[in-house]
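Record type: monomer structure entry
Structure origin: computed from sequence
Chain ID: A
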Amino acid sequence: SGVVFTFYPSLAKIYKEMERSMNVPDAIRTSIQFNLPFAAHTLNLGPFVQCWFHRDSRNFILGICPVVVLGRFNPETSGHFIMVEPKIVMELRPGDVLLMMSALITHGTAPLLPGETRMSWTCYSAGGLFRY
């Protein structure tokens, strides 16, 4: 959560206000959310996670989505992270963390080579949580 509060202070305030409005006790919230400001987490445990090109249109449109890259693959030859509209192809290594606006940017991953594995951990918040 330090990254969000340091680099996205205005966004962090919006997330905090959403959390307060939900009236979830701190002990429950921190045990579920690992003290992160995101309402949901997804573990993609593969072992051959392929992210088809998509936009997360139901996520909070102004929000960011951290993606933790996991697995054993060579990022120079396979498994590239691709963002369509900005025309960016990234070599993300296992252990890298990417912060992106997943509701606005079409994104996906390139296939792996035989014998490689890829997994990921993503965090996000549904846009509907911020309406009220």
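Annotation 1: The radius of gyration is 16 Å.
Annotation 2: DSSP finds three helices and seven strands in the chain.
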